[in-house]
Write a structure and sequence with these properties.
Layout (H helix, E strand, L loop, with lengths): L7 H12 L9 H10 L6 E6 L3 E2 L2 E2 L3 E10 L5 E4 L14 E6 H5 L2 E2 L21 E2 L2 H5 L5 E11 L2 E9 L6 E7 L6 H19 L6 E7 L3 H9 L7 E7 L9 E3 L7 H11 L4 E3 L8 H4 L8 E5 L21 H19 L3 E4 L13 H4 L6 H14 L1 E5 H8 L3 H13 L3 E3 L1
Parallel strand pairs: 7-8, 11-12, 11-13, 13-16, 14-15
Antiparallel strand pairs: 1-10, 2-3, 4-5, 4-9, 6-9, 10-12, 14-16, 17-18, 17-19
Helix pairs in contact: 1-5, 1-9, 5-9, 7-9, 11-13
Bound molecules: zinc ion (ZN).
Length: about 425
């Protein structure tokens, strides 16, 4: 079967499959290689931010790269091999070549006794150390004696790599779609997010939209902090957004609200996931990168869409989150949901009151007489006052209707009159 005849789900899965084997981290060549593959689908703009640069309250760390790592047992047999699975190495391990007794080695091993057959995923980005991850069953079979340990990695000044792509619409007001790109061989968290967003961007590239849509491919936490630090001048254009992660499994959808909780994005995502028996989750300052976008100084209307919620499924952050855990069907369902959300978002309009400090003098502008002849003068007048009051760039028509109790038709008539008098502008 040729690519053209494959279903969209198969195409997304194929991209996930290409990305899965790469050993990624928050910096390094794994991220660059990942972005190179995604660049074949969308024209990414790749940024390199140097080690040591201050970003908000953080500092860009040293760059980490790894080529090999292994442990040999007292018989000289290679029992752990990075080439077999990149989860075997504690991500960001410092270079090392050393012999040591099993008791010493044990202090650097990570396993999960409750899930004896999986390799856990562990990182140590901000504290320099080394370690290996292995199944608990294997750990229990280790014999006493002297082990040889090798980690062929580098941790040196370099840069942090991230990428973005802006699909331009009619207006520079935009919605942000973002995913993290820092996990090694883990399929749902997070190869699925990258593969779905690359396909979503590709889909939008071929559509006409009112809003602009920005796609971010960034390492978790430090990536969103870096992007926010470097893009403070455009944050006023952002009407909302979604952190997309963990969208390849066959679980139900979850939407975690933005900190604001009542923005258009919150309402639309909530109603769209409800069509798929999805579940709404309240905001909390934990989880994925929404915690940075929603920090109080930014307070952007950015929520999170996932299928199974991070940390709640046994495969999460283990070697069981592999290509069998995600499916073409799961990925295609997520893409379709996001397309449906964008369709609804793109038809929302936000208004700005050009005279928001106190009520404008409506009589002077002939606005009372303009409605004089209408049947329902009182309700149109109330609609004008509500429209003026809620035209703060955060309420779309539906939100105005819900807040004011005035019907959509009446609000539309009021907005039309106010726009004609230059008291309102459409964003
Ligand atoms: Zn994760």
């Amino acid at each position: 079967m040729t690519m053209e005849h494959n279903s969209i789900g198969d195409q997304i899965y194929e991209l996930a499959k290409q990305l899965y084997p790469i050993c990624r981290s928050i910096t390094g060549n794994g991220v660059r290689q990942t972005l190179e593959i995604i660049s074949k689908h969308i024209p990414l703009e790749v940024h390199e931010v140097p080690t040591g640069m201050k970003v908000l309250d953080w500092i860009i760390p040293k760059e980490w790269n790894i080529v090999d790592a292994w442990i040999k047992d007292p018989n000289g047999r290679k029992i752990i091999d990075f080439q077999n699975h990149n989860l075997h190495v504690l991500n960001y391990s410092i270079p090392l070549r050393q012999k040591m007794e099993l008791e010493v080695l044990q202090g650097h091993l990570y396993s999960i006794p409750e899930q004896p057959d999986v390799i856990p995923y562990r990182t140590s980005y901000y504290k320099e150390q080394w370690g290996f991850c292995l199944s608990h069953r294997q750990r229990e079979s280790l014999i006493a004696g002297e082990y040889e340990v090798c980690i062929e990695s580098t941790l040196e000044p370099g840069s942090l790599t991230y990428a973005e792509y802006l699909v331009r619409g009619q207006t520079d007001k935009e919605f942000l779609f973002t995913t993290h790109i820092c996990h090694p061989s883990l399929a749902n968290d997070n190869v699925s997010g990258m593969a779905v967003l690359a396909n979503l961007a590709n889909h939008l590239d071929n559509s006409e939209t009112y809003y602009s849509y920005r796609f971010l491919f960034i390492p978790g936490t430090i990536g969103s902090i870096t992007w926010l630090d470097q893009n403070q001048n455009i944050l006023n254009n952002i009407k909302g957004g979604i952190v997309v992660a963990g969208v390849g499994d066959d679980g139900h959808f979850h939407y975690k609200c933005s900190r604001r909780g009542t923005s258009a994005i919150d309402r639309i995502c909530n109603s769209q996931i409800a069509n798929h028996s999805g579940q709404l989750l309240p905001f909390s300052p934990y989880g994925y990168d929404e915690r940075q976008f929603c920090s109080p100084g930014f307070n952007l209307a950015i929520g999170n869409i996932s299928k199974s919620v991070w940390g709640t499924y046994p495969e999460y952050h283990t070697s069981s989150d592999n290509l069998d855990f995600i499916s073409a069907k799961g990925l295609a369902g997520s893409l379709q949901l996001l397309i449906d959300i964008i369709k609804e978002l793109d038809s929302c309009r936000f208004y700005i009151n050009s005279c928001s400090r106190g009520e404008p003098q409506l009589g002077r502008r002939g606005l009372y007489s303009a409605i004089g002849g209408k049947a329902d003068v009182k309700s149109l007048q109330m609609a004008m006052l509500w429209a003026l009051n809620l035209s703060d760039g955060d309420h779309d028509l539906k939100a105005m209707e819900e807040r004011s109790g005035v019907s959509q038709g009446t609000l539309e008539a009021a907005i039309e009159l106010l726009c004609k008098s230059d008291l309102l502008t459409v964003e």
